[in-house]
Amino acid sequence: MDKQKFIELFKETIDIEDKEITSDVVFRDLEEWDSLALLSVIAMIDDEYDIIIQGNDFKSLNTLNDIMSYIDDQK
Amino acid sequence: LAYLTFDNIGISHLQACVPENTIVNRKYTEHFSEVDADAIVDKTGIEERRFATEGVCSSDLVYHAASKLINDNSVDKSKIKFLIFVSQTADYKMPATSVILQHRLGLGQDCMAFDMNLGCSGFVYGLSTMYSLVKSAFSDETQGLLLVGETRSRVYSAKDRKTAFLFGDAGVACLISQGMKYGKSHFELNSNGELEDLIKIKYGGSRNPSTVNSITQEIIDSNGNVRTEEHGYMDGTEVFNFVISNIPKSVKSFIYRIGIDPQHVSFYIFHQANKFMNNHLKKKLRIPNEKYISNVDRFGNTSSVSIPLAISTEMKNNPKNKSNTLLCGFGVGMSWANGMLDLNHTQLGDVLEC
């Protein structure tokens, strides 16, 4: 998948367009990460990749790379 | 498959009642900061809700709605032989609130009355059950009164941000009548009790009776949300996942089964959960703006009442053809249901405030 595109979508989804982040950022440690951000990211992934990440599966993901490989595995 | 179809049964009259007491969410800051409140409202899109004042029950809201419906339309009460009260906030554990309402509304003793304990799917469940009863009635003049009431504002902890800004109170009365003009109606009803824990009040029933602890002991989660075991709990993430995984599929297959072109659906009226979830459903089902009905910004999530309340506030002055109106309720259970009916001949009263 297009890593850069995913990072941009992620930033846009949780309103951190101004921040520089890489694909190995631990998104849970971001100041903006909360339960509403989680729902927004689940919705974005459903919209863009047609994949619904179940809540329990999401708990095992920590970096954007983790999310991207999860999506790739489901495809 | 619990798929039901009916000919010549319809909602002849519908009347809603909401409490006057309006809660403005951005100013609902007794337990949370204004910054928190704004962030939640920006996401959920729920600006205002109505809270019943102390002592006012779900049954009072539906009583006022039903009384107005009966008086305004000179309804002959002797023709009402069925009464269903859909609610999860009944007056008592026993007797059933519907039986009390039979007397309070001055209906005859030859009226069947029972409660239906369902949440957000409850209106579609109650409606399809009432259609079945009225359809089976001996006389073609027999009518049924479907009452749907909730005081969800009291179910959840005001200190739990996951639920404190979502729920509101309301009641609706619908008269179900027979007549050729109502045409065909369709319903499909579903359940998945494996997911019983997603939305739950764990204590205070027979499985886990009330204890001093269940009432007074505070449970504090990692985000500082406070509730007790007698408050409603909701796993928002799992509920969201359930809804986006199941509801679009369910709605699509329902429309396909009925055999109409999705373009011929007149309106889509979903359970008014919150704007974030409902907008996502709208997007997934590619519903155009003019067919999408919502009042969640002004009344919040009123559980089983949200669909008929949206009909009441949004359809009254809508001059468009309402012949294929799709209703879709989903939530606590988990339980979900679809309905497709003609609302062209439904008399909608102005919303009553009390």
Give a verbal description of the structure.
Chain A is mainly α and 75 residues long. Chain A is 56% helix and 0% strand. Chain A has helices at residues 3-13, 35-49, 55-59, 64-74. The termini of chain A are close together. The model of chain A has no long low-confidence stretch (mean pLDDT 91). By secondary structure, chain B is α/β, with parallel strands linked by helices. Chain B contains nine helices and 18 strands. In chain B, strands 2, 5, 6, 7, 8, 17 and 18 form a seven-stranded mixed sheet that branches. Chain B has a five-stranded mixed sheet with strand order 1-9-16-15-14, with helices on both faces. A two-stranded antiparallel ribbon of chain B has the order 3-4. In chain B, a hairpin with a 3-residue loop joins strand 15 (325-331) and strand 16 (335-341). In chain B, helix 6 runs parallel beside helix 7. In chain B, 49% of the residues are buried. The model of chain B has no long low-confidence stretch (mean pLDDT 96). Chains A and B meet through helix 2 of A and helix 1, helix 6 and helix 7 of B.
